[in-house]
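target protein:
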Amino acid sequence: MYLAGVASWALPVPPSFVRLAGHPVRWQLMGELAYSDRRVRELARLLGQPQNLVSYHLGRLRTAGLVGARRSTFDARDAYYHLDLASCAGALTAAGLALHPGLRLAAAPAAGPARSCRVLFLCTGNSARSPVAEALLRQRAPRIEVASAGSRAKPLHPNAVRVLRDHGIDVAGRPPQQLSDLADQRFDYVITLCDRVREVCPEFPGPAEQVHWSIPDPAAAGGTDDDTYPAFQGLAAELQTRIGFLLGALAAAPAARTAGRSAGSP
């Protein structure tokens, strides 16, 4: 307790999150990965640091459970790193409580942007990842104009319909959307969900923010629909988490980003 304005306890050593994140290189890495999933060579270029040093610090963050990695589906010799924002949120809360019991972080409501905003999700087939992301974002933030497309569009996977139905969304009969049909439209955010489509993603008109979420195809393992359904459930759960943090970022984005644009304008 405090007596006469003087702390009567001695603080322990800083929590591991503070020690880890306090390193300048690791803090920069976390900042880049909070924005988009990236490969090591991209991170090395962005930070202006040797690749072996970047790999070392990524390893420290992975060991702490703050960063994860997945093999690229475009080139298996590569890996995409992502920041585990939920783990970071928990670590930040724990660090605040270690400093003072009154420093409990309250989650801000993720209501999305105050102004109109256009978001495009992309994957290869527009059959699973991108339509699920589109539907989940639209459900949570009806103010946002959201679309999805594929570089080689094909019909919806039955499990995409099934997992969205479990979330109270019916997309049965939705036609696939071809990426080339949207190439001349303006979007505020273009989010690629597939490593392959990231390699062929065109430049969109206007100052679109291009973000990558490296998420594997839930149907890639093969087998029956029942065999792959747990992977679709995992896909929906990961997208719900990422979309929640996306909405927080959109709500905090400068109003000037969307000023002067009308929703739906090409």
In short: The chain has nine helices and eight strands. Residues 118-257 form a domain with the Rossmann fold fold (CATH 3.40.50.2300).
